[in-house]
Amino acid sequence: MTDLPMTDLPMTDLPMTDLPMTLDPGARQLPAMGGFNRTVLGIELRRMLRNRRTVVLTLIVPAALLLSIGSQRGWEETVGEGNVAAYLLVSMALYGAALTAAATGTMVAMERAVGWSRQLRLTPLNPVAYILMKALVALFMGALAIAVVNVVGVSQGKAQMPTHVWVLSAVVTLFCTLTFAALGVFVGYLVPGENTMQILGPGLALLSFLGGVFIPLSQYADVVRNIAYWTPMYGVAEVARAPLTHDLPWYAVVNAVCWFVLFVAGAAWRMSKDTARA
Amino acid sequence: MTEQTILEQRSARSAFSLSGVTKDFGPVHAVRGIDLTVAPGEIVAFLGPNGAGKTTTIDMILGLSEPTTGEVSVLGVRPRQAIARGLVSAVMQTGGLLKDMTVRETVAYTASLFADTRPVDEVLDDAGIRAIADRKVGKCSGGEQQRLRFAMALLSDPALLLLDEPTTGMDVEGRRTFWSAIRADAERGRTVLFATHYLEEADQYADRIVLMSRGRIVADGTGAEIKALASGRTVRATLPDPDAAALTSLGGVDSVEVRGDSVIVHAKDSDAVARYLLTETTARDVEITAKGIEEAFLSLTGHDDEGETR
């Protein structure tokens, strides 16, 4: 240790009154709703829509799939309150919305990786408000994906189901996609960087095949079908199509709820780990 | 007035204060007990080698991490409360920006999170980035990104500004403009704490230099005081069995180190040491070198080894 004097502030020298008002903690306000606001929502949406890869992958691919698969033979056969084309339309909307929500979810991990989340922690933004805004953006993007598939389906003119079924299944599908927003956050942490969607894209397509989104499970061999019941797309697909089919096995509901809880827990677990490190 | 109330009043009037602060990461003691009070309007340089604990300390002042023991107070409140009111900002050296947002979007996004902010266009003007407001952040140069970080930090008119190596990559003119702006703000009462490796920059622009090493504050004083510590020279000579006591008793000797057949003496009066070595001993190969900042750090911390094993 050196003999340099440890400078200590003389008590009398501290300014007592000449502090500008704005620098006084008492004169400062907290933001309303923890920083939840429309400016951020608007910018976040614009970012998603500007990303060409997201737009192609999530808005165009599902619609194109519907056009190709939806024209197969037997589209006019009856399923529940509608026909096979309607069944495929709901399935494809679910696939598109799940992919979109997952893409939105991966942004959270990407933003952490580049230090944006740390930057946000230097603002009054409440973490709950942040996640809420991200969830809303995921929901909006999911709704957009569902709308695109529905518009394409209507213009194709093959799908038939009562209007209330049409609307109800769209709404149910929308909320099912939150599962995949959480999955996106989770996978984003496990596989950081630009590669996240390269895993999630094919991964979700595979899960959709397994879960009976593209092809009904009744056409699968018993072995495959027994595996399918356990995969994450199966439950939400059955739930989303229930307004049309009026057929909802209890284990499909259990599947949907369990995977939702699992993905949210996984995302929360990775996020809290990440925060602890920062 | 009791000592306790004096301390409380002081931390209420200070820009920030740390008392008895330690931070452990598992078995690693990153910060080993810091007491530091900074008054409003002070410009303080936080000097120290990498791994000294500067960043860990700054993170605790920002409320990004909690001290293992001890108290941190910012403008008399807890760090997170100060952040929530826009009283504290920080500019980090890298990262913290999204490439796919435009400059204006980045500022508008940040501004929307505070209860009160300066107008976005005004801040863009001040930072000299209004002309590139519609450019994507990823297409901005390093200097432009740094200006953007400053614009974001100044949005809420913070009372305390923390800067990490603020002028890295700036040219001489940029540095001068930057620091005159910082000084003008300090005169209004804004406190600035900046981390740096460079004694020269600390000496030129700070009112006060806090020197940190191995998790402790090893010196705290004006630039002149700290510089005196680094102004000595190192004398190295080949000399078996040197008389360390005799060397130490020479005027102006800070430390004597024996490494095998070599003796290394840190001294303010290197001439006296050299004269002694050449006339009174059998020393040969005498070398005299100016002490760099790294060695100044070492001479300040070299005798602190008992702290490591405790």
TrEMBL record, chain B:
ABC transporter domain sequence ranges: 16-239
GO biological process: response to antibiotic
Database matches in InterPro entries: AAA+_ATPase (IPR003593), ABC_transporter-like_ATP-bd (IPR003439), ABC_transporter-like_CS (IPR017871), ABC_transporter_ATP-binding (IPR050763), P-loop_NTPase (IPR027417)
GO cellular component: plasma membrane
Location(s), subcellular: Cell membrane
An MF annotation (GO) of this entry: ATP binding
Keywords (A to Z) from UniProt: Antibiotic resistance, ATP-binding, Nucleotide-binding, Transport
Membrane topology recorded in Swiss-Prot or TrEMBL: Peripheral membrane protein
Statement: the UniProt record of this protein carries the keyword Lipid biosynthesis: no
Superkingdom to which the source organism belongs: Bacteria
Pfam families: ABC_tran (PF00005)
Protein name: Multidrug ABC transporter ATPase
Organism encoding this protein: Intrasporangium oryzae NRRL B-24470
